[in-house]
């Protein structure tokens, strides 16, 4: 019996340059099976380059990558079998129909034609594109192309999913469906790595977040930790003056909103327990609170604090 290789994704000391541009300068992280890991960073921070390296489509200059224990450099076949890759645009084959694209890719993965056709129909239904099954891909809207791209990534039932901006171009209903689908796939034990700029969405989708900046991984955080960190809350009350006096009595520094946020008071709290205790005290103390909620998403809070720390 062989040794059991650890599943999921790991990257250590990964670097990659294009000429003089150092796109990836030092990425270290893991993405375990059974969870959704978010890859978060500003434009140009190296996310797409990293995903291409993980998908075995680009070689790193230095560093080590493992996908379910396999090395993309020396075992690209094993990696490609394991990985479903959704790039940020659908790309090629505009004149093929949605079904033809999925069946062709399925066959490239070694599926029998009948099995590929059945799987294609199943996935088109899953991403609500059945009615476009026989339409050429070029007539699909941007959001529909994104959904077809997701179906293409899933055709061979991969155990590792690499998704580059999967929610981009999706309407709110489709975003919710994407979130539910990814949660279900993670529940089935798959490893999911998803890059996105829409942090509020990742709050509900991801279990863990890897923050990148300037080609380096700068922080890894679980959503649980992100939710319990010092965080801004926005509070509204009918009588703002009374609310501010109550906050003063609690020794909590606060900021009054202006412009569209007039009437709103912001206060920094150390997690949900402190928030619940404060809300109870305010209400029991007779303050007429009409709204009380985090002012930013948990991941956005971390993202902004990392950006603020930058030299
Ligand atoms: N093939 C290439 N040739 C030259 N430079 C490249 C190439 N691919 C990426 N780069 C550069 O590497 C850096 C990182 O790019 P990358 O696409 O990985 O960033 P990203 O984090 O995915 O950005 P975005 O959020 O805008 O999608 C950028 O400065 C980019 O211009």
Automatic annotation (TrEMBL):
It holds the Pfam family ABC_tran. Signal peptide: none annotated. Keywords: Antibiotic resistance, ATP-binding, Nucleotide-binding, Transport. The keyword Oxidoreductase does not apply. The keyword Nucleotide-binding applies. GO terms for molecular function: ATP binding. Residues 9-239 form the ABC transporter domain. It is found in: Cell membrane. It is a peripheral membrane protein. PANTHER family: ABC TRANSPORTER ATP-BINDING PROTEIN, ABC TRANSPORTER ATP-BINDING PROTEIN NATA. This is ABC transporter ATP-binding protein.
């Amino acid at each position: 019996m062989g040794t059991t290789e650890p599943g999921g994704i790991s990257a250590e000391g990964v670097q990659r340059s294009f000429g003089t541009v150092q796109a990836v300068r030092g990425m270290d992280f893991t993405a375990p099976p059974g969870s959704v890991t978010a890859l978060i960073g500003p434009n140009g921070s190296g996310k797409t380059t990293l995903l291409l390296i993980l998908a075995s489509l680009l070689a790193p200059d230095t560093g080590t990558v493992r996908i379910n224990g396999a090395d993309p450099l020396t075992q690209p076949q094993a990696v490609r079998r394991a990985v479903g890759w959704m790039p940020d645009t659908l790309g090629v084959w505009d004149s093929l129909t949605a079904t033809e694209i999925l069946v062709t890719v399925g066959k490239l993965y070694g599926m029998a034609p009948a099995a590929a056709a059945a799987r294609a129909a199943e996935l088109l239904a899953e991403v609500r594109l059945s009615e476009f099954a026989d339409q050429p891909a070029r007539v699909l809207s941007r959001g529909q192309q994104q959904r077809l791209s997701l179906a293409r990534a899933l055709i061979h039932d991969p155990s590792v999913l690499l998704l580059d901006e999967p929610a981009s171009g999706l309407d709110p209903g489709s975003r919710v469906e994407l979130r539910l689908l990814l949660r279900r796939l993670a529940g089935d034990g798959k490893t999911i790595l998803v890059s996105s700029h829409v942090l509020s969405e990742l709050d509900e989708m991801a279990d863990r977040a890897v923050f990148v900046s300037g080609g380096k991984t700068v922080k890894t955080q679980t959503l649980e930790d992100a939710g319990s960190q010092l965080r801004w809350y926005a509070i509204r009350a009918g009588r703002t003056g009374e609310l501010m006096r109550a906050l003063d009595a609690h020794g909590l520094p606060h900021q009054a909103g202006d412009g569209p946020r007039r009437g709103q008071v912001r206060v920094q709290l150390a997690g949900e327990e402190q928030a619940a205790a404060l809300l109870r005290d305010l209400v029991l103390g007779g303050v007429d609170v009409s709204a009380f909620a985090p002012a930013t998403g948990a991941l956005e809070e971390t993202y902004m604090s990392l950006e603020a720390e930058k030299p």
